[in-house]
Amino acid sequence: MADGGSVELDELFQPRCVAVIGASNRPGKVGTSLFRNVLQAGFQGVTYPVNPSWKSVSGVRCYPNIASLPDAPELGVVIVPAAQVPATIDELGRAGARGAVVISAGFREVGEAGAALEADVVRRAAQYRMSLVGPNCFGVFNTDPSVSLNATFSENLPPPGNIAFVSQSGALGAGILQYGVAQRIGFSRFVSVGNRAGVDENRLLTALGRDPRTKVILLYVESLANGRKFLEAARGVTEEKPVLVVKSGRTPAGERAAKSHTGSLAQSGRDQLYDALFEQSGVQRVNSLGDLFRSAKIFSTGLRMEGPRLVVLTNSGGPGIVAADAAIRNGLELPVLAPELRASIAPGLPSIAAVQNPVDMTADVGARQYREVLAALLAGDAADGALVIATPTGTMTGSEVVTSILAVRSSTEKPIVACLFGLTDLSEDARSLESHGVPAFTFPEEAVEGLGALARYHAWRTRPRTEVRSFPVDRATADAVLARARATGASVLPEYAARELLAAYGIRFPEVGVSRTVDEAVRLADRIGYPVVLKVASPDISHKTEVGGVAVGLADAASVRDAWARMDRSVRGAAPTARIQGFEVERQIVGGKEVLIGMQRDPGFGPIVVFGLGGIYVEVLRDVTFRLAPVRPLSARHMVESVKAAPLLRGVRGEGPSDVAALCEAIERVSQLCVERPEILEMDLNPLIVRPAGEGIVAVDARVVLAPTSRSEPSA
Amino acid sequence: MADGGSVELDELFQPRCVAVIGASNRPGKVGTSLFRNVLQAGFQGVTYPVNPSWKSVSGVRCYPNIASLPDAPELGVVIVPAAQVPATIDELGRAGARGAVVISAGFREVGEAGAALEADVVRRAAQYRMSLVGPNCFGVFNTDPSVSLNATFSENLPPPGNIAFVSQSGALGAGILQYGVAQRIGFSRFVSVGNRAGVDENRLLTALGRDPRTKVILLYVESLANGRKFLEAARGVTEEKPVLVVKSGRTPAGERAAKSHTGSLAQSGRDQLYDALFEQSGVQRVNSLGDLFRSAKIFSTGLRMEGPRLVVLTNSGGPGIVAADAAIRNGLELPVLAPELRASIAPGLPSIAAVQNPVDMTADVGARQYREVLAALLAGDAADGALVIATPTGTMTGSEVVTSILAVRSSTEKPIVACLFGLTDLSEDARSLESHGVPAFTFPEEAVEGLGALARYHAWRTRPRTEVRSFPVDRATADAVLARARATGASVLPEYAARELLAAYGIRFPEVGVSRTVDEAVRLADRIGYPVVLKVASPDISHKTEVGGVAVGLADAASVRDAWARMDRSVRGAAPTARIQGFEVERQIVGGKEVLIGMQRDPGFGPIVVFGLGGIYVEVLRDVTFRLAPVRPLSARHMVESVKAAPLLRGVRGEGPSDVAALCEAIERVSQLCVERPEILEMDLNPLIVRPAGEGIVAVDARVVLAPTSRSEPSA
Asked: Which of A431, B503, B580, B607 has its Cα between 20 and 30 A from that of B433?
């Protein structure tokens, strides 16, 4: 990746001098429209066409090469054939350019030779510490009037505004700009990242986070350059500015066969990983491009919805009901209005009005009631935002109700969105609302979706902050276990070693001892307490059950003796050559809930922790949740609460609650282990038993897979 | 409900003579705009204004009352004050009118007095066998050029087309007509049903089903007049025409406290009941008003998608990926293209084109490739429909690609939808596509949603038809059980009676016998087979466990003797006055999966059958599914397959499959029982044990609740 350029990427967004290499006069050529677009958008710097074939381009004096330009270009926009791009980058670099936007195609997307060419471009850009956008991209624009740069091949730009958009697809970028023009959605900046060889969404997030004109950042991504770095970049930005994302692209086939349960979950639940990533970074994921821009319209008002409580004001029942349904679906609440508030509103309304929430004022009311009731609903602490639905009828015109809404708009900080229905074209009225910070929508559902995202974003910004906990652990033991494994070259730790390692990190296992005689086994069982499990201990037997090497539910000394005799016979019969080190006697855990805590290390995401209720819930219902490690206390609790089977841990059918506090701590301890021990590739604690509240957890089985060779975190 | 009028409702949709009672010249009055709208829409019949205050209205001679009209009106549109409506209906009836559209408000929606007035209006309309629309409605229109009736207060009508729309909300109706105008969505007929006192969605479904100009029927409903009749009406229509619905309105508080588990599930899962109803009637439920109209645009082409296989053709990757994601979400498939097909396509494309599905031809192709490749993709049996995504670039204009798409459109019966993205306004190109049967959308997701619904509708029309099975049952026993219960006035059947009733309908229970002596108990147990359960049998003990009256897991004769002695002591101690009839010996069921089959009778929906996996799955995870009885074999199987825990019945973790065939039959038998025995209000078989394949089912517990008084199905 080309790592040059400034953090703010000013060389891309506000260059003083732009060279368009490959500018042309030939109709239909990208070089023709792009240079014309730079001129037409009224660029406030100076732009030079570069092309040895033309004396002037679009009436501007053209230069045969970069070296002959009268000024040093700060940014080069490159539209030459792919093969000439590396030399062009060199020329730009020599001329002192700090950035290059490579529109040209014919790189990685066309196969191996193209990929090699792309690598060459990246190398040269890095050498000159240039910011590289593309190749194979649609360009960059900045609507800031002090810049007015349109280095894209889109002729029509949406109006200036505060929404920045980063797209991994050029075509979608084009479509969306056109949509912005049609819907009058105001944009601040736009970048098509193309093949993303240089500047990626992570650098852009940071740069756009610092742009004072950008208040909302939209992303369209098909993959992330690096999930772990996205988390870091996005967390930095979402503290200040909302980031909304559409993530497309279905599960790619796993690159390597997963060796553990958690591994296979992480492969099949790849999209859930993205959900976890976006949730942990405060990024609002939306389901469709339509949602993205509708939500952006609401975010771009800059208003906050400081809680989920929505009040719906309407003069017709149906749209109110539709809005109420959508509000609940989108995680909003429709608070019951306090009696005093209802009493203060009711006198101004017809007797048949429903002073509930939605407040259905009925068709008899006029603009005055809209103003008075909306003001009353938002004045106190009854609601965090309002949806106003109005069907102008004989009692009021569209412009009257708009005036009412805007009067309230100017006296509150709470968001107001609107749906105007009517018998005549109300689009002028809608525009008038939107230009004063009241986004307007055709259908109530669309209005409510964005409000849901707005409330979620506020909840993110004001979430309780918890710090990653670092538990005191037995490092010496963990070091020893891992050193031993490295020495043997084992990739899967023997179970006892896995237990030792996890125990060193504070995960409790059942008490166990190894007996060499039957009397020793009984003594051990007497000490440990019944019921016990008896298991053969042999380095040569990996599937103990298959050789009759496991007996469970041994309730007393006699049963231990019986089981010992039977097992000794059966194991020696089934595995005559196995070295038998003895028989393990282990306390059998009775009662409690089985869960799985696992970890997988992903090349892009780093260590991922997975949690789910054990057995059927994980294996059949796939009821699991993921987080990128390190997992903070609050995230651990969210993990536990977010699975569908979570009520089982709270206690159902007369049972008491399970020890969720101990479970959360176990998740955090696993997180700590996988952050501190990068050589661990995958791990499962499955099952881990969560005992009743106050009694802690006990892991019953542990599996730890090490990286084949020494392996480090994705580079930071 | 007013039951007059014709099945086709021609008196509403194509009256030859319309009287507008309450027509006016006063600006802003509904009577003013409504009469003007009738004139302006170019009504092909004759319309008369009726109003004693005016000599002429909108230049047309006005009559003081209905009696003085020169012709008999076939339809009256009523806009007089509420109190005058009953008399107006009388006048219309006496004049021979066959239909009335009551726009006037002031009825049920304003309280009790209004409700009484409404009942009066209904009574009078029924007396004259008039079809009554409203009151409190927005009107009716029919765009058929031989009629051209606009009896609404909307001045702008959408263009003529083949979409009929029935709305339970006037305001939404108004909004949607406006949307239709803006989006050029063609409508055939529109009805705002208002308070739905007379004509309801069920009659309209039937009538619109018979209208040859209507090809798609859209419904917006907040409640259904009668769920059971909706099922019948809709099933009739959906065989021929697609019906799409938005159903809004959250769970109303249950009218009566539910007495059984199934009852409480049916209350809390009310929205799932609607899902079941729509599924059983072939009605496509969509999630939002936006979806409704976008899907309608696709359905209105009249094309069928005869399977779920979608091919996506694009010249840019991003939108293709977005479309692919959306296709999977919407139940469509993206088939892998056969090698021969790929080989036939590839030569015409650039070498870097991805001849997969999506077929990404890359930006280098022109309109010719669009035509050739699209034709090839749809010519054979590779796909059932196509989404064409095009970003016009230097290689082709919007109108060229439109020409290509339309060339293929005319040579295939498969649906084609389009997304055009571009650097310039392509709305004229999109319009051109739409006018020739290729719906166009801004975003790929929107295109794909409607195709999913189209494929689902075809699957419905071509579903395997199964007939309701009628099992031979022991009617005499069932009659006797119910007669006995009626005699005692019991509303909850004693468990033995519930078992007897269900056993008479073929539900198997564990073998059981009553013993009076301990020797008899052992003999019984020896015959039945171990393990057994021993239970005290007493009419005076309802909670057997509490008095120590239940012993489970008795594995041999000695255990039965022990348990008998202990139980005899404990029960006599705890309930000294209880009459002990003996001790039941019952085979204990070991192994198998617990499920629940239940039934609840709903006032509007009639008998509803519920199914879910027992215990946690039903109680905590609410993983249940509903169907309106009678349940056909195919529906029974769908019920079993549709719960999330269904894999457990197929066998997981090395278990074999459960006896799903027997389970389905049990569901159908429960369905038969509740259809044949309307006095049963609620019923639970919980748990019912599904044994391994071939071993059938055994119910362990049964609960049957009878209607307090004699009770019949919702009137047909």
From this structure: A431
Summarize pLDDT for B422-442 with one digit per residue, the tens: 767 788 999 999 999 999 998
When CB atoms are compared, the residue of A250, A322, A653 closest to B619 is: A653
Other C-beta atoms closer than 10 Å to the C-beta of A684 total 25
What is the ipTM, given to two decimal places?
0.86
Name the token pair of A511. Answer: 């008490």
CA angle A635, A638, A644 (to 5 degrees): 145
Q: Which fold has domain B593-706?
A: D-amino Acid Aminotransferase; Chain A, domain 1 (3.30.470)
Residue type, position A283, single letter: V
Determine how many CB atoms are found less than 10 A away from the CB of residue A716.
9
For residue A621, CA distances in Å to A683, A685, B660 come to 21, 18, 19
CA atoms in the 13 A half-sphere facing the CB of A579:
3
- Give me the amino acid identity at A60: V
Q: Helix (H, G, I), strand (E, B), or coil: what is residue B63?
A: strand
- What would the two tokens of residue A49 be? 């066409």
Is A319 part of the contact surface with chain B (CB cutoff 8 Å)?
Answer: yes
**What's the average pLDDT block by block, 10 residues per block, for chain A (716 residues)?**
72 97 92 94 96 96 97 97 97 97 92 94 96 95 96 88 94 83 91 95 96 96 91 94 89 36 58 90 92 94 95 91 90 93 94 89 92 96 96 85 96 95 82 94 92 96 92 96 89 89 95 89 91 86 79 91 91 86 87 92 91 83 90 94 91 86 97 95 93 93 83 42
Say whether domain A307-461 belongs to CATH 3.40.50.1580: no
DSSP code of residue B99: E
CATH of region B511-587: 3.30.1490.20
Cα nearest neighbour of A396 on chain B? B28
Residues in A touching B174 (Cβ below 8 Å): 391, 421-423
SS3 B558: helix
Contacts of B445 in chain A (CB under 8 A): 287-290
Query: Would the CB atoms of B322 and A172 count as touching at under 8 Å?
Result: yes
User: DSSP string of A83-114?
Assistant: GGHHHHHHHHHHTT--EEEE----SGGG-HHH
* Topology, domain A475-587: Dna Ligase; domain 1 (3.30.1490)
Q: Give the span between the Cα atoms of B143 and B181, in whole angstroms.
A: 13
Pair A47, A17: CB distance under 8 Å: yes
Count other Cβ atoms within 10 Å, centred on residue B235.
Answer: 14
The DSSP 8-state label assigned to residue B219 in this structure reads E
- Determine the longest span between alpha carbons in chain A, in angstroms: 103
Model pTM score:
0.89
Any A CB within 8 A of B172 CB: yes
CB B94 within 8 A of CB B67: yes
How far is it, in rounded angstroms, from Cα B36 to Cα B49? 10
* A324 has a chain B CB within 8 A of its CB: yes
For residues B646-675, one letter each, b for 16 or more C-beta atoms within 10 angstroms of the residue's C-beta and e for the rest, the string is: bebbeeeeeeeebbbbbbbbbbbbbbbbbb
Two tokens, residue B154: 């909307």
| Substitution target from B219, B364, B421 for chain A, most A beta carbons within 10 A | B421
Longest Cα pair distance anywhere in chain B, in angstroms? 103
Which sequence spans correspond to the domains of chain A? 307-461, 475-587, 593-706
Which residues in A262-291 are b (16+ Cβ under 10 Å) and which e?
bbbbbbebbebbbebbbbbbbbbbbebbbb
Interface of A with B in 289-318 (CB under 8 A): 289-290, 314-318
- CA nearest A668: which of A704, A703, A630, A642? A630
Task: Please give the Cα distance from A405 to A134 (Å, whole number).
Answer: 45
Q: Are B280 and B236 in contact (CB under 8 A)?
A: no
Q: What's the pLDDT score for residue A542?
A: 67
Which regions in chain B score pLDDT beneath 70?
Answer: 1-4, 250-268, 423, 542, 709-716
